[in-house]
Amino acid sequence: MADPGLGPDLDRTTATLGRRYFVRFEEDVLRQRPLWIRLIIEFLGTFVLVTVAAGSGVINHYVGNAPISRTAAVIAPGAAVMAMIYAWGPLSGLHINPAVSFAFTARGVFPPKWLVPYWAVQFAGAIGAALFLQGMFGDVSQGSNYPISSSGGEWKSFVMETVLTAILVSIILNTATGARSIGHNAAIAVGSTVALLGLFASPISGASMNPARTLGPDIVGNDYTGWWVYVAGPLLGAAIAVAIIGSVRGLPDKDEREAAEGGALPITESSSSERT
């Protein structure tokens, strides 16, 4: 027969073990990662995003009769982003978008010396995904984004990409931990924003909001129609988002800068206990 006196001791032991687990989990999530790990994750993340985002158009063209609806085509990338933030956000910040890396750098929470390496692997991941789709199904240009063909379509698409990216990057900057998209808030907010913006705006510009996502298929497919829209629009939108967050929240403080490099720790067991 169990000793009744063991009950409180067992509860305390279980609670202590639970606190230690979550402290170590937080430390692992927020600790600084070497640049090479970040670059691998950025390459893989961008590869996955472009494969999903461009894949719908390529597969529709390959199969015929458009079995993948426009709704599914714009929701799928948002769902992919949501899943990857949960899985890989703590490792690199999961920018997977040159405009996002630019925004974090302009905000002052991401090391400028990392910007070019991030851009390089993001474009490499996008081109790799486009090569994969081209090799599997052919005509990867069917999965790229192009401005609407109506009169003034390029300028309308430019304005749309600017506005959409400003919205997306504002959401990212306000839900990120330092310069990293981590956890439930970022995953749900960012993933759903990608999907929702695509639902209403994709007929105009494709709702790219990401230079790598568009230029990867453009380069492999050798079709650069309206390419400037998908470079200038997202970068201008990101700059607008940085200006907005700066005006409402001010400059980032020391903790926010340190969090960008995993230095906002240590999280101690005692501090964790104080929060519980």
Descriptive labels:
mainly alpha; 276 residues; disordered C terminus
Shape: globular
Integer average pLDDT: 84
State the end-to-end distance: 33 Å
SS strand fraction = under 5%
Element pattern in H and E: HHHHHHHHHHH
In percent, how helical is the residue content?
A: over 70%
Radius of gyration: 21 Å
The number of helical runs is 11
Structural class of the secondary elements?
mainly alpha
The largest sheet is: none
Unreliable spans are 258-276
Number of strands: 0
Give a written overview of the molecule.
The protein is mainly α and 276 residues long. Helices cover 73% and strands 0% of the residues. Helix 2 (35-63) packs across helix 8 (211-221) and helix 6 packs antiparallel against helix 7 (183-205). It is globular, with a radius of gyration of 21 Å.
Summarize the structure.
The protein has 276 residues and is mainly α.
Task: Describe the protein's topology.
Layout (H helix, E strand, L loop, with lengths): L5 H25 L4 H29 L6 H23 L5 H10 L7 H23 L15 H23 L7 H23 L5 H11 L7 H21 L4 H7 L8 H7 L1
